[in-house]
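Practice problem 4.
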């Protein structure tokens, strides 16, 4: 059974989310401060985090950054700040998804289900290997020549999709459907931001290779042109 960590300083909201998650068959735990989240995640099984943006102790943006230093657990940000959405979508802080307040608890549960499905994307398939890239779907771990590439869940799923058929051009709409399984509307800019971040992280490990290529007017393809 998946365990969901609720990080929310408003008790009534936390209780409501916990009730809906329990009803949907999820275990859950509640924290009301940001500065205790990283230690909890390090010492407990956490399959997904619902993370409020405004928290005492440490705000949600810093919490997300801290967790990303050691874990790729899916993180859904809960925010009342509309101006933060582009930042969250750009994954500058490593978040996988967001929900704007005020929200329906049913919508949050739907997002939880969708993000957990992404974690298990193609989980029936064997772990993928392309050239010297190795992708472990169970651990959401990607390496190049044995060196870890520190990816978010969405970035891992994107790399997994592109490497599943080297040379094939994946259009943005196809990527949206395969990565965002909850059918929500995602802009081209969001996909381009994912690609930019993924390229940067691969380059940090292997600056000598260029593997994700833009195809003008069509999309992206994986091809190792060293």
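Answer key:
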């Amino acid at each position: 059974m998946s365990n969901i960590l609720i990080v929310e300083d408003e008790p009534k909201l936390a209780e409501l989310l916990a009730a809906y998650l329990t009803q949907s068959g999820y275990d859950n735990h509640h924290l009301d401060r940001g500065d205790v989240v990283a230690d909890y995640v390090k010492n407990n099984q956490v399959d997904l985090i619902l993370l409020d943006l405004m928290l005492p102790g440490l705000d949600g943006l810093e919490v997300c950054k801290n967790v990303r230093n050691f874990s790729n657990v899916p993180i859904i940000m809960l925010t009342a700040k509309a101006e933060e959405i582009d930042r969250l979508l750009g994954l500058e802080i490593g978040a996988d998804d967001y929900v704007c307040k005020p929200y329906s608890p049913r919508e949050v549960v739907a997002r939880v289900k969708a993000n957990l499905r992404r974690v298990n994307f193609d989980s029936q398939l064997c772990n993928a290997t392309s050239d010297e890239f190795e992708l472990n779907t169970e651990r959401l771990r990607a390496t190049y020549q044995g060196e870890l590439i520190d990816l978010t869940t969405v970035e891992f799923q994107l790399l997994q999709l592109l490497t599943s058929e080297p040379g094939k051009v994946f259009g943005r709409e196809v990527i949206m459907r395969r990565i965002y399984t909850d059918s929500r509307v995602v802009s081209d800019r969001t996909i381009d931001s994912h690609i930019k971040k993924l390229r940067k992280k691969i380059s940090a490990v292997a600056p000598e290779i260029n593997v994700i290529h833009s195809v003008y007017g069509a999309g992206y393809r994986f091809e190792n042109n060293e």
